[in-house]
């Protein structure tokens, strides 16, 4: 069996209803993330937390030094779990995530977090492009409504489109329950 690693992308306070960028379904995604983290810790699966922070104080959200950039308490890193701070959408860009995965002997990754259509998307595609088999736990990810050209796509449709794209060419997409039920 390949060594698995869990990547928890941007489960930060900014995405809660009290944050500057609240996501649809974030509470349910975090509840599933709590279960996934507990399982990873119990099984000795390495966990890598990603925290998005913009480099300037003029950013509209994820402003350095604010509560919004903090990882949600429910999914706070354990003492031995690294927090990788990124300044871009892609968790691998200008970070040491790849080196940390390699140092832990990770051969396949499980990805959860936010936002499905941005940072989760970039992380999934980058990991797959680097040769990692990727599993996305769809109900441990969240996003928001998007508008383009006067058309608004509800969060559920944005999320479904992203999961379908992942499943088409980048990842296995399953539920938290199915993942936890695996032998």
TrEMBL record:
One of its GO terms (molecular function) is hydrolase activity. Residues 6-155 form the Isochorismatase-like domain. It comes from the Bacteria. Keywords: Hydrolase. InterPro entries: Isochorismatase-like_dom, Isochorismatase-like_hydrls, Isochorismatase-like_sf. Transmembrane segments: none annotated. This is Cysteine hydrolase. It comes from Oceanimonas doudoroffii. The lineage of its organism: Bacteria, Pseudomonadati, Pseudomonadota, Gammaproteobacteria, Aeromonadales.
